[in-house]
Specification:
Elements: H1 4-28, H2 35-65, H3 71-94, H4 99-124, H5 133-153, H6 164-200
Length: 207
């Protein structure tokens, strides 16, 4: 049972990769696939993403509940989160150009890679950048927003009513959530940057 949290984290990575390849396959092979197969891939991608996102909440809770927190788990968990977020963003972008998605998605990717590089540099100097409370909520907001965007992008695959009165507000709501997630993501990136700047700056008066 103590290995269950790490297994769930590993499952999240696998599901993230499946989500990306299913969406990319549905887009790239669209001319060779039947509509039914293409829609099936999109539905599988959506549900794989939902399950993967749920494991993000469950694995941490189980680790605390079972007193099974490990160094490996603390390393793998944020990696799994970033793989999931980046995977679904790239999968969404593969479905077609959409500026309302591409711009906030690019900002999120820019922040994630920048902070990862910043952490690596800081770790090389023996400095740890603690996760902020806002950063924890940031991941939740990203997953909810990306899930909404994925549902809207795969709307036809679920045979949902193609009524502008329904699809229009749903699309607008998804875009607003994604832009909000991008804004919070950038704020947390600035927080990490300030942490790193203070930690890496020489003490006042140092030669």
């Amino acid at each position: 049972m103590n290995r269950l949290p790490n297994l769930l984290t590993g499952l999240r990575v696998a599901l993230a990769l499946f989500t990306f390849f299913a969406l990319a396959g549905a887009a790239v092979l669209s001319e060779r696939l039947t509509p039914a197969t293409q829609f099936a891939l999109e539905r599988w991608a959506f549900w794989a993403f939902v399950v993967a996102a749920l494991t993000d909440f469950v694995d941490g809770w189980l680790a605390r509940r079972l007193n099974a927190a490990t160094v490996w788990g603390s390393i793998l968990d944020p990696i799994a989160d970033k793989v999931l977020v980046c995977g679904v963003i790239l999968g969404l972008l593969s479905l077609g150009p959409n500026a309302a998605v591409a711009v906030p998605a690019a900002l999120i990717l820019f922040r994630e890679f920048t902070v990862s590089a910043l952490r690596e540099v800081a770790a090389g100097k023996g400095i740890s950048l603690p996760v902020t409370l806002l950063a924890k909520w940031k991941t939740t907001l990203q997953l909810v927003a990306l899930g909404a965007e994925l549902l809207v992008a795969c709307w036809a695959a679920f045979s949902l009513p193609n009524d502008p009165a329904v699809l229009g507000p749903a699309t607008m709501g998804a875009h607003i959530m994604l832009w909000l997630a991008a804004l919070v993501t950038l704020v947390t990136g600035a927080q990490y940057w300030e942490q790193a700047r203070r930690a890496l700056s020489p003490p006042a008066g140092a030669a």
